[in-house]
Amino acid sequence: MSQPLPIKFSKPPAIPRDSLILITGVNGLIGSHVADQALAAGYRVRGTVRSKERCAWLEPLFASRHADSADRFELVEVPVLAAEGAWDDALLGVAGVVSVATSTGMRVTDVDKEVQESVAEYINLFAAAKAQPGVKAVVFTSSAWAAWIPEPNVATVVNEQSYNDRAVQIAADETLSPQEKGLAPFMTIKARVEKAVWDWVEREKPVYAFNSLLLDTVIGPILDPKNQPASTAGMVRSLYRGENLGLLGMIKPQWFIDARDAGRLYLAALTTGVTGWRVYGCAQRYSWAAILEILKSLYPEKKDFVNLPDAGWDHTDIQSDKHELLLRVAGQAEWTSLEQSVRDTAESFLSRGSS
């Protein structure tokens, strides 16, 4: 797999190179790409996982991708994110924090309970960071679903103040079955948690810069397909195999972002001195039918691809350009295309024999 290109900042970063960056959930698709980009840009990385034993593969992974990672990448264990003092040691000497780790899954049984638990985990980290005078910036991972429900062929306008109130209403409607609610409970958690996090920032006024990234579907090469949970990039693998079609059917046409571009977006939001931004991680529209056609063109010898119905297309108008500005600050002129991202994702799992 190709190495990441070093970021060429268009202006000196507010957090200088060689500073120490804490990345939570570094074993996941997003966290690993943030770490990959940070190491390539000349930062030192301390990545947190719930179990060092289960995630020992991360150190040889980054050693194979970055010659000096033995001195620049450190793996630490934080098994309980909301525990008192959980972050004290992990934050020592840190200049920036990228919060990726989450305990929320897509199958939700108790929205209020999961919101309460998630908020407690995040605030525990952000409050601990507030107590560390060296922390200059924090980036929080939200979701585009915190802002709106994707609906194909419906003209929807969202901006930097949008929250998914409609999902909240659907999730709270006791007349609807779980099937009728669909992913609304999960979207509700994302919206309510992000609101609570921003409320905490407004109330507590930490001295560090604070921004949130609202990522839509993340696709891109899985850095270690043998050991790593594939997350949303694994849906491309599922489509290639003809598996999990029910889940794919629940995820309507919307936007995607390549995992490498997301890594650069995080780094730009963290290191360039901006604050108070809600940044959409949305690069290009996609549908699973469109991805299927790309896979068919890439692998014409495979004759057993499934067929998918045309689910329509996304018509959301995202009235914000902050993600475009940050991409350019990171020295990248344009987003990785859907075609390239699907190609690289497929090659990552096929080359490792995990087809």
From TrEMBL:
<dbReference type="InterPro" id="IPR050425">
    <property type="entry name" value="NAD(P)_dehydrat-like"/>
</dbReference>
<keyword id="KW-0560">Oxidoreductase</keyword>
<comment type="similarity">
    <text>Belongs to the NAD(P)-dependent epimerase/dehydratase family. Dihydroflavonol-4-reductase subfamily.</text>
</comment>
<protein>
    <recommendedName>
        <fullName>NAD-dependent epimerase/dehydratase domain-containing protein</fullName>
    </recommendedName>
</protein>
<dbReference type="Pfam" id="PF01370">
    <property type="entry name" value="Epimerase"/>
</dbReference>
<dbReference type="GO" id="GO:0016616">
    <property type="term" value="F:oxidoreductase activity, acting on the CH-OH group of donors, NAD or NADP as acceptor"/>
</dbReference>
<feature type="domain" description="NAD-dependent epimerase/dehydratase">
    <location>
        <begin position="21"/>
        <end position="273"/>
    </location>
</feature>
<dbReference type="InterPro" id="IPR036291">
    <property type="entry name" value="NAD(P)-bd_dom_sf"/>
</dbReference>
<dbReference type="InterPro" id="IPR001509">
    <property type="entry name" value="Epimerase_deHydtase"/>
</dbReference>
